[in-house]
Design goal:
Chain lengths: ~260, ~325
């Protein structure tokens, strides 16, 4: 455990060095919300603010997107470019030598970043609740954060998996961006899932995507959510993708050439 | 300590013709070729030995080192280091080896070296007291106490290499792999690193496997030399035996008062003249040393001369140019 904590401390120290970059990365969703989502939905509802689209009037739609911003801050992290680049440039060599594996290193880095993002998200959450006097139940808010953290774990394993493709592919950046775009669409981060066809919604709830954005937001907004199903589906997906990542790592290492050494 | 039997490594190389047409062709049908980086190789290394791996660029030295450290997986053969198969990367194995890469930093670039050391302390589970003692001892030996709290990116190459070495020795590895540890360093820094490694070996007696293009590193440290050319082990023996591979020759250097016009006498001794023709280096069989030196001293306007055994650099250069000489050894 001491290894993990020390590694997290080093990652925190490193975040301090690149603090401007980290702060910008953390507050960029706020800009996306203010400059894109808020103005887009306000334009769509113009003159018909009380009309409901998929069960949302303008205020509800804006609240939904405000919570999406907070939730995805925890559940969606950085894309996998670092790992695949490290593999391609032979920078993972040190972690094949240390008695602390590449996975342990990446996972403790994830925990370090996630803890900071969680703090930012909680700060924003309470700030929003107090400033806009929005209703929030502590229990459902707590479950929503927990579910978002669990979804963050899935997102980490998914990106770790994409990063490991660097053993085979020269460039995985496009894959990372594609997965991010698809995730945004299917998690309800762009439009609420109620606006999707019913058959698609049914399928989606067996995938990990709704639990990355839509479901935690609905919890915060006071809707009834099948929590047990949410955690069960997400856990199965985490186990599946983690197992795939493990297999990929084992196979990929046989191809590793430690370039540049 | 290290046993290799018939170990070899093959890589699949992607081939592409130059230019856009080549790229387009490769896009639809990729062509690969198998390159054998290391031919089946046997190697036995005992505890505490210092081995110099020699060979030109691309000969396979680093590939061999990567296999010995478990970074890459051999394509075949049997390999055992410290009783373990390196490619399995067992924790027991990883806790007992270290690798220093002259061309790659293992430290956190944007943090002081001490932050990386503290991380390494936890990785290797070094008790706090032992860690403190080792940091003190190594920083004294390497004279880096003043740099430990400076960001690594702000250190000079020589200073960085010293802290890299320190980082790799904190857990007192039983086998230390050094891949060009002095590359890019000035002469004084090179010497400092060599002296440190020598002292450290005397004190702790780890096994050192060293690759370097600076023969001074090999001469100063290695007791045994393994020469690899085009993936084949072409020589494995003591450094003295290696130095005498070309026979028991001596190198003579002469400086003359004026340019020498008549140099037929020097021709049989592989002369190397300087640009002005006023200095020459020749290689003379030990038995003829007295006679050749007397002749030159008597017949030419010599202002200075010196003699030495054939430098290892010259031996290596000759063997790389004429590998067939090795077949006779």
């Amino acid at each position: 455990m001491a290894k993990w904590f020390q590694c997290m401390k080093v990652v925190w120290s490193n975040l301090m060095v690149y603090k401007t970059n980290f702060i910008l990365q953390s507050i960029s969703p706020l800009f996306v919300f203010l400059f894109i989502k808020a103005s887009l939905w306000t334009a769509i509802y113009k003159g018909a603010e009380r009309v409901e689209i998929g069960g949302y009037d303008l205020n509800q739609m804006l609240t939904y997107h405000l919570w999406i911003m907070v939730v995805t801050l925890i559940s969606i992290g950085a894309i996998s470019q670092d790992l695949s680049q490290d593999i391609r440039l032979g920078r993972i060599t040190a972690y094949l030598i240390y008695p602390f594996s590449l996975f342990e290193f990446h996972f403790s880095g994830f925990l370090a970043r996630q803890s900071v993002k969680l703090a930012i998200a909680l700060f924003t959450l309470f700030g929003v609740v107090l400033a806009l006097k929005l209703p929030l139940s502590v229990t459902s808010g707590g479950w929503a954060i927990l579910l978002a953290l669990w979804a963050g774990l899935f997102w980490f394993f998914l990106n770790y998996f994409f990063g490991l493709l660097g053993f085979w592919l020269e460039e995985t950046w496009t894959l990372g961006v594609m997965s991010q775009v698809i995730t945004y669409f299917l998690s309800g981060a762009i439009i609420p899932l109620e606006l999707y066809p019913l058959w698609m919604q049914k399928i989606l709830f067996f995938t990990p995507f709704p639990y990355i954005g839509f479901v935690p937001v609905k919890l915060i907004m006071g809707s009834e959510v099948a929590l047990a199903q949410a955690f069960a589906v997400l856990t199965l997906w985490i186990a599946f993708i983690a197992l795939c990542g493990y297999g990929l790592y084992k196979r990929g290492l046989r191809l590793y050439t430690a370039a540049g050494m | 300590m290290i046993h290799a039997q018939g170990v070899f490594k093959e890589f699949r190389l992607y081939k592409k013709e130059a230019g856009f047409k080549g790229s387009l062709k490769a896009f639809f049908s990729r062509q690969f070729e198998i390159k054998r980086a290391i031919a089946p190789l046997d190697l036995e290394i005992q505890r505490g030995e210092i081995i110099g791996l020699l060979g030109p660029n691309g000969a396979g030295k680093t590939t061999l080192m990567k296999m010995l450290t478990g970074i890459i997986v051999p394509s075949g053969g049997r390999l055992s280091v410290l009783g373990c198969e390196p490619a399995q990367r067992l924790k027991y194995f990883r806790q007992r080896i270290a690798l220093v890469m002259g061309q790659k930093s293992q430290l956190w670039w944007d943090l002081p070296a001490m932050d990386s050391f503290l991380l390494i302390q936890k990785y290797y589970e070094i008790p706090p007291k032992a860690f403190k003692d080792r940091v003190e001892e190594l920083s004294d030996l390497l004279r880096v106490s003043a740099y430990l709290n400076v960001h690594v990116r702000k250190l000079s190459l020589g200073e960085r290499m010293k802290v890299e070495l320190m980082a790799s020795l904190l857990h007192e590895p039983e086998v230390l792999f050094l891949d060009e540890p002095t590359i890019g360093l000035d002469l004084l820094s090179q010497k400092n690193i060599r002296d440190f490694l020598f002292q450290y070996h005397q004190k702790r007696n780890p096994t050192l496997i060293l690759t370097s293009h600076y023969m001074a590193d090999i001469e100063a440290l290695a007791q045994r030399v393994v020469l690899i050319i085009e993936g084949h082990k072409r020589f494995d023996g003591s450094i003295n035996k290696f130095e005498n591979l070309l026979g028991h020759n001596k190198t003579l250097n002469f400086t003359f008062a004026q340019q020498i016009k008549e140099f037929n006498f020097f021709s049989p001794y592989s002369p190397r003249w300087n640009a002005g023709g006023k200095a020459v280096e020749i290689t003379v069989p030990e038995g003829e040393l007295r006679q050749v030196a007397s002749h030159i001293l008597a017949q030419y306007p010599v202002t200075d001369f010196s003699t030495q055994k054939t430098p290892i650099e010259r031996v290596l250069e000759t063997l790389l140019n004429s590998p067939e000489l090795l077949k006779e050894t």
